[in-house]
Amino acid sequence: MRILVAPDSFKGSLEAVDFCRISQQVIAQQLPNAEVICRPMADGGEGTVAAIIEGAGGRYHQCTVKGPLGCPVDAVWGQLNNGVAVIEMAAAAGITLVEKTSLNPLKASTWGVGELIVDALDKGCRQFIIGLGGSATNDGGAGALQALGCRLLDADNKVLIRGGEALSQLVTIDLKGLDQRLSDCEFTIACDVANPLLGGDGATAVFGPQKGADAHDLIILEQALTQFSSLLSQYGKDVVNTPGAGAAGGMAAGMLALLPAKLQPGFDIIREHLHLDDVFKQGLDLVITGEGAFDSQSFAGKLPIALANLAKQHQVPVVVVTGCRGDGYREGREYGVTTVLPLCNKPMSLDQAMSNSEVLLQEVIEELCQILKIATLKAC
């Protein structure tokens, strides 16, 4: 029996590499004749760098940068053996870097992401994979552009302070100081949402509340991004209606408008670098994947569904392990998901579930192995 274990991270509780480690250990104990292929996955957010570097080979670099609210953070980015830089914005502007009580998308900035790009430029990188996801920001990528030398000026020709709110005062985008090395670069932006920059389905309306924005903040941030987009169209490309431009607080929009960048589904990037097609062609009996919550929202490009679609093409059953099995989870069967197994085996709080995620996962995989033993006996 060949089993592919390819989960996303469970944000804040269980890394994809730990999911793989625990699953492999349990399966080795329960099904000693099974071959387990581990591929930690990611969708552009946390874990993207590790997934690509561990799966394709490369090395890590560490750089101290400004976090979402300006405090220094030690961020890691990766470099593939062919020189391509792999950066996840969550490492420098991620929501997990800010205490819940301190989340403030009005002031949060992507400046640190720009600093990571500069560090990669200094190390000779000219091709980039930028994973969008898990951000605490709503600044349209303005902070990253500022760190790269772009000057954002108000009516008095003064440089804007960082953060999404300040963009409402934007009058001029000065590109003269933009790092000249960027003209020789190519940016592939890993993006798994189709949200535009503005409107009811845009960056602010959809993602702002989870970053701490209240009703009044949402109005301010939408006005600020509207102003920013009007200037982007003057100095770069008009991307306001581009599907995916609203990803990561609109960071996709800023990069697409002013940098040599293109959007690509995060799963497609991971699939290519981890040679997933080859793994399936060699034959599989089961795929085990997972994410923190699995519900109707998972069908909008989330990793387990993308993986299930691939498995469906090869007629391989898929088990999704999840921390929360929400409304609409059964619809996953239409996409190739065979069953969805929740981690929680009894009533417990979210904090209890997150703090005991490794033990809960071990128990779920043990039970799954028992089911597989029964299936194997019946097949014989």
Automatic annotation (TrEMBL):
<dbReference type="InterPro" id="IPR036129">
    <property type="entry name" value="Glycerate_kinase_sf"/>
</dbReference>
<keyword id="KW-0808">Transferase</keyword>
<dbReference type="InterPro" id="IPR018193">
    <property type="entry name" value="Glyc_kinase_flavodox-like_fold"/>
</dbReference>
<comment type="similarity">
    <text>Belongs to the glycerate kinase type-1 family.</text>
</comment>
<dbReference type="Pfam" id="PF02595">
    <property type="entry name" value="Gly_kinase"/>
</dbReference>
<dbReference type="InterPro" id="IPR018197">
    <property type="entry name" value="Glycerate_kinase_RE-like"/>
</dbReference>
<dbReference type="InterPro" id="IPR004381">
    <property type="entry name" value="Glycerate_kinase"/>
</dbReference>
<protein>
    <submittedName>
        <fullName>Glycerate 3-kinase</fullName>
        <ecNumber>2.7.1.31</ecNumber>
    </submittedName>
</protein>
<keyword id="KW-0418">Kinase</keyword>
<dbReference type="GO" id="GO:0008887">
    <property type="term" value="F:glycerate kinase activity"/>
</dbReference>
